[in-house]
Design goal:
Layout: H1 3-16, H2 20-34, H3 47-59, H4 64-83, H5 110-117, H6 125-140, H7 144-148, E1 159-163, E2 169-173, H8 176-189, H9 211-224, H10 233-246, H11 251-258, H12 263-284
Antiparallel strand pairs: 1-2
Helix pairs in contact: 1-2, 1-9, 2-4, 3-4, 6-8, 6-10, 10-12, 11-12
């Protein structure tokens, strides 16, 4: 498999929390597109290449829903390539695709979050680091890539400075439990670090932690917590936003904390809370 395609699949697996079936479908769709490029690299791919791919799918009799899904895969892939600096132009922005479904993110209940965050015990370096990692993810709603990029100087007693997409910075408040977990990790296992610019979260060898490590660790703790659903670090981001909204937080404030440029992206959490309210009504109302 192409290296960039592999990197992209790792990205959506760890950062977006998509299901295994969706990730597999994205991989197939992008490889099908690549097979129509006649050896052209991603930097040489243009809008005509995408139109040629869509025409081939139509000639082969693909359903409109399948063509739409494959176009979405290509759009998301090129957005990733542009973000990573692998291409100069995001081809996806030139192609509109109908919204065929509203993606409802996977969300943990508050009780499930409590059980999950109780799994890392903090008695050794890995446990203390992991507890601080997951407390901070849930406390701030930051993306896992943003967390991996944090430096020690980015955290204060009340806020964390997050570098988001497009190198835009935002200040996000941090609660008491996350600060306590961070303090324990830093004072017990990072006292030898003298540089404020040093990575906040590192491996045993002192290397900056990566997305795959965080993704693997949450799988381990989810299993020990008895959570059978497939979750990822991004699930904590979704849970953060949903729990804030359910408890009355303003959608604009949630947008700022998540680092969303478009309020429409944040608005999907109203669909999540609405579906949860409906499920609760059907489960508990005497005449649902």
């Amino acid at each position: 498999m192409d290296r960039l395609v592999s990197d992209f699949l790792d990205f959506i697996r760890t950062e977006k929390g998509l299901s295994a079936n969706t990730i597999e479908a994205y991989g197939r769709d992008i490889e099908a597109f690549q097979a129509t490029l006649n050896g052209k690299g991603w930097k040489e791919t243009d809008g005509e290449s995408v139109l040629h791919f869509l025409s081939i799918l139509k000639e082969k009799g693909y359903a409109s829903s399948s063509i739409c899904r494959m176009l979405v895969a290509v759009k998301v892939f090129f957005r990733f390539l542009k973000r990573e600096g692998e291409v100069g132009v995001d081809l996806g922005r030139y192609f509109d695709s109908p919204k065929m479904w509203q993606l409802v993110p996977e969300v943990l209940s508050i009780e499930e979050v409590d059980v999950l965050l109780a799994q890392p015990k903090g008695e050794d370096f890995i446990g203390a680091r992991d507890k601080a990692v997951f407390e901070l993810l849930y406390a701030t709603g930051m993306r896992v890539s943003e967390l991996c990029s944090l430096k020690i100087c980015d955290v204060s007693d009340a806020f964390v400075k997050v570098r988001g997409k497009g190198k835009k910075e935002r200040l996000v408040p941090v609660g008491k439990k996350a600060i306590e977990a961070l303090d324990h990790y830093l004072t017990s296992f990072r006292t030898s670090v003298t540089e404020d610019n040093a990575p906040l979260f590192v491996s045993k060898k002192g290397q900056k932690i990566d997305r795959i490590t965080v993704w693997n660790r949450i799988k381990i703790y989810a299993k020990s917590a008895g959570i059978t659903r497939s979750i990822s670090p991004h699930t904590l981001r979704h849970s953060f936003a949903t729990h804030l909204l359910e408890n009355g937080a303003d959608l604009r404030l949630i947008q700022d904390m998540l680092g969303h440029e478009d309020i429409g992206t944040t608005d999907r959490y109203t669909h999540v809370t609405g579906s949860r309210l409906k499920a609760a009504f059907q489960a508990f109302h005497p005449r649902p």
